[in-house]
Amino acid sequence: MKLKTTLLAAFMVFGAILLSGCGDSRITLYDMCEQQPNICNDIASQGWCKQQRADLISHRFQSIVAPDDQDNHYRTLLAWGEFHQCIGVASKIMRTTITDRSSVKTLAYLTSIKEIEKLEQATRASQYPQLLYYHWAQDGSRTKIRKLIKLDRANKLETTELQLMMASYYAKVDTNKEIKAQYNALKLVTPASASLIDNQLYASLATNFMRQKKYPLAYIWTQIAELSGLKTANSNLLKSRLSNQSVDLDKMTAIAQTTYASINAHDFVSPESQY
Question: Where are the domains of the chain?
Fold first, then answer.
């Protein structure tokens, strides 16, 4: 399918985006689509979902360059998922448009379904941790989650991304292990992984400590959540409860500020170590 107008529009916006992992070779989306038109033509989007499409094209190209790259397989699945969600919305909007009834976006949407299913099937037996987690989340396989737990116990999941994955699992079964994984995720943050941390993590820690009736820690993490811009509901309740227990709220607030600063500096210092 030749869609030069659509491609050129995308190239104008994303032509400077480079494919990581290609050594010193600087290759643009235009180059990728020139070399491998099949990875671009079947996901034409008529100007919609530009960022998702650009990211997906880069990962599809990387799959050709390095077909055994398990991390790229995982990232490609994520990219397909983002594109699928976006183009699904775009294709629904298109159906209500009177002046343009093209089915291009609908075809891209159907392609995304087919390609996600194909890549899921191809990676189902992978032992790569991120793919183990992806497929466990899809099918609930006890075998897959046991493998991840074993790797975690052996300290072989030492990245922010993987610890956040394990925290999501432990949230269902063990609050202490969830908190440990959440703390590990913060300790392992690097500039490259900092974007994986959001204020919902702070709110989750506040909730977990609240459930454990560790109110000073719940207060500290509530304050951290608020420092990050999240509105919380328990702050006044915790202030009242801690005041009744003669807890030094000024000290707790100072610890929250120090902890939040350490997170932003990618050098996490736990509140417990500051008591």
Answer: 4-123, 127-191, 198-269
